[in-house]
Amino acid sequence: MGVQVVVTLLAASLMQKMAPHCSFARWLLCNGSLYRYKHPSDEELCALAGKQRPKSRRDRRASGVAEDKPLSVPRDIELQLDTSPITAVDALVLRHFLEYQWFVDFSVYAGAVYAFSEGYFCLVSPARESNLGVLWCLLTVLFSVKVFCVVMRHYFRSEEGGERSVCLTSAFFFLLLAMLALVVREDYLEFGLEAGLAGVSSNLEPILKPRGWEWTLPLARLAFKLGLVALSSFLGACLTFPGLRLAQTHLDALSMAAGKPLTQLLLHVGFVAPVLVVLLWVRPLARDFLLQAPLGKQTVQILSDAAFDTLRLWAVVALSLLRLLGTRHHLQAYLALAERWVRRMRRQAGRIPARDIQRQISRIYCYVSVVSLQYLGPVILTLHCALLLKTLGQHSWGLYPAVSPAVSPAAPAAPPRPEGGPGDAEDVQVVVQEISGLLGCIFTPPFFRGLFSFLTWWVAACQVITSLFGLYFHQYLAAS
């Protein structure tokens, strides 16, 4: 494991030392391709409204004007916003920019370490070594959930309370949907979760039966499913507003890409990518169709089971990378909301304080890093769940001979120790062996295969539901 430890320490050191100088997250926002809209100054608004330039406090005090009336202008003024490319200095004022930069950079380094670990295991085939790339992917999944919590905290702190109600309602809805997905038979949704839990139960039974604890197996199985349902509900609530935002930026990006068929094709493929991921786990539409493809009155087997699992992994990775290619178009569509808000304001009557105009335009720009997290977070989570599914589930990329999955045998039950037995050191060693054997019986490849298949499918399903509802909301409800 020495080579992997060296690469892991090197990656951690590079991530820390190179972040101020070379950052993929900062380049994604500040490479000059994104343009922000600058808010107008008081002098510019007064000139558009045909008013005199506002006096300073010293001039008002000298002329005897005590009260400081807020500047207001007509809503229908001919306001044209200036644009400017986003620079590294401009990014310092963005909300949660440091969290965004650290999370995106960490996911990039995690992908690089994982790719090295996969190549190392392919070429060297070390015996009795753990894949440290799995640890980086697990940390990326945990950090993705943490990022979702940070973003959702804003909605719960909102003064109006409407966002909080939407989060709670979506959590309850996805709770019911997760329970429904777990009771669907494997003939329709092939997660392999039931086979994995059955294998864990058969491995633990020889250990628990001599102690009289075999009655805890059904309770543990039920507790695991309840915990998985609770996690699914939480993820669904976290992915609600990212899905709504994705639908809005998708519609705006399509209108901005009018006359560019390749860009529109990229946007459409990126939007329907979660739908394709969801269909890959629907057995009648995916595995059964490719393994037993109808050809006249006969059936032809196009792929084997292992080849289909490999194809599914590559499809998830490819679709995730395609969605990453559309990041710039979605972020620019979000920044264009400032110009869209100005056009909507000009169609209204009355007056508006100048400070409200400046605040609204500045707020759109300051939250571009939060929108980036909403767009990239689900993609990164889906991608790393697929990577964990490949390694912990002992699948293959199809680029080299696959290693046959090893089945973890049940650890034998340890005989009861006499009271006057060996010393404390041997007792500790026996306890450590029992714990390691117990963990080996629980965390088996079939168990990981079922768990990360469900998580990969669930994240994609949540994106499909929320983005489709977002399309309906922005096209019909918001316009009315």
Report on this model:
Residues 403-421 have low confidence and may be disordered. The protein has helices spanning 2-18, 24-30, 42-49, 57-62, 97-123, 132-156, 162-183, 193-208, 216-238, 240-256, 261-279, 287-291, 305-325, 327-335, 337-346, 354-366, 368-392, 424-442, 445-477; strands at residues 35-38, 72-74, 82-85, 293-295, 298-300, 351-353. With 480 residues, the chain is mainly alpha-helical. Helix content is 67%, strand content 4%. The relative contact order is 0.14. Helix 13 packs antiparallel against helix 17 (368-392). The longest helix is centred in the C-terminal third of the chain and has 33 residues, at 445-477. The chain is elongated, with a radius of gyration of 28 Å.
Descriptive tags:
4% strand; 19 helices; two-stranded antiparallel ribbon; 480 residues; mainly alpha; elongated
How much strand content do the residues show? under 5%
What does the overall shape look like? elongated
Largest sheet: 2 strands, antiparallel
Q: Termini, distance in Å?
A: 61 Å
Percent of residues in helical segments? 55-70%
Side by side, the strands of the main sheet go: 1-3
Number of helices: 19
Report Rg: 28 Å
Number of strands: 6
Secondary-structure content class = mainly alpha
N-to-C SSE string, H for helix and E for strand:
HHEHHEEHHHHHHHHEEHHHEHHHH
What is the residue-averaged pLDDT? 84
- Low-pLDDT segments, ≥5 res: 403-421
Could you outline the blueprint of secondary structure elements for this entry?
Blueprint: H1 2-18, H2 24-30, E1 35-38, H3 42-49, H4 57-62, E2 72-74, E3 82-85, H5 97-123, H6 132-156, H7 162-183, H8 193-208, H9 216-238, H10 240-256, H11 261-279, H12 287-291, E4 293-295, E5 298-300, H13 305-325, H14 327-335, H15 337-346, E6 351-353, H16 354-366, H17 368-392, H18 424-442, H19 445-477
Antiparallel strand pairs: 1-3, 2-6, 4-5
Helix pairs in contact: 1-5, 5-6, 5-17, 6-17, 7-9, 8-19, 10-11, 10-14, 10-17, 10-19, 11-13, 11-19, 13-17, 14-17, 15-16, 17-19
